[in-house]
């Protein structure tokens, strides 16, 4: 599962992100649609809510299916280990690559258990940051993104 989108042909990734709205069945449906549409991979997002957001922000009011605060809404969108195991199993069944952009080091630690060969460093990850130095030690292919545009691929 080696991605080579630059100079090696086209590699199409469907952005599932958090568009599954915390619903595992919807995530699986999106994975199936991606596969049926000819995508090579699907990408999710993983973040540790208490690291990525400030306490003040998490306490702010926000109506959602999960509650009345930003915290409840953000937590409602996050998958747990069991959910990611199901995603991993379903991706194998579909024969589609999956990976996730980790927004923080604990999220990357969490994703490591799935032996994902790809790391997407999105616009939330800063080049040269502590996180990037950590990711560089993983021995995995690193892809830097800015918004929806792939800007650099580095095989580590």
Layout: helices, strands, pairs:
Blueprint lengths: L12 E5 L6 H13 L4 E6 L2 H4 L2 H5 L1 E4 L2 E3 H8 L3 H14 L2 E6 L2 H8 L5 E4 L8 H7 L4 E6 L2 E7 L1
Parallel strand pairs: 1-2, 2-5, 6-7
Antiparallel strand pairs: 3-4, 7-8
Can you walk through the features of this model?
This protein has 156 residues and is α/β, with parallel strands linked by helices. It is built from 7 helices and 8 strands; from the N terminus they run βαβααββααβαβαββ. It has helices at residues 24-36, 49-52, 55-59, 70-77, 81-94, 105-112, 130-136; strands spanning 13-17, 41-46, 61-64, 67-69, 97-102, 118-121, 141-146, 149-155. Helix 1 packs parallel to helix 5. It is globular and about 45 Å long. 23% of the residues are buried.
Characteristic key phrases:
globular; 156 residues; three-stranded parallel β-sheet; disordered N terminus
């Amino acid at each position: 599962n080696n991605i080579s989108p630059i100079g090696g042909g086209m590699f199409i990734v469907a952005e599932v992100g958090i568009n599954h709205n915390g619903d595992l069945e919807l995530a699986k449906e999106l994975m199936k649609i991606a596969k049926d549409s000819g995508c090579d991979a699907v990408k999710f997002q993983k973040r540790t809510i208490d690291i990525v957001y400030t306490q003040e922000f998490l306490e702010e009011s926000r109506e959602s299916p999960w509650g009345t605060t930003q915290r409840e809404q953000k937590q409602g969108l996050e998958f747990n280990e069991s959910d990611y195991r199901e995603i991993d199993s379903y991706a194998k069944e579909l024969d589609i690559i999956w990976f996730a952009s980790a927004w923080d080091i604990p999220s990357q630690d969490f994703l490591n258990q799935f032996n994902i060969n790809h790391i997407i460093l999105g616009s939330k990850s800063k080049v040269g940051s502590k996180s990037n130095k950590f990711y560089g030690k993983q021995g995995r292919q690193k892809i830097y993104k800015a918004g929806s545009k792939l800007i650099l691929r580095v095989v580590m």
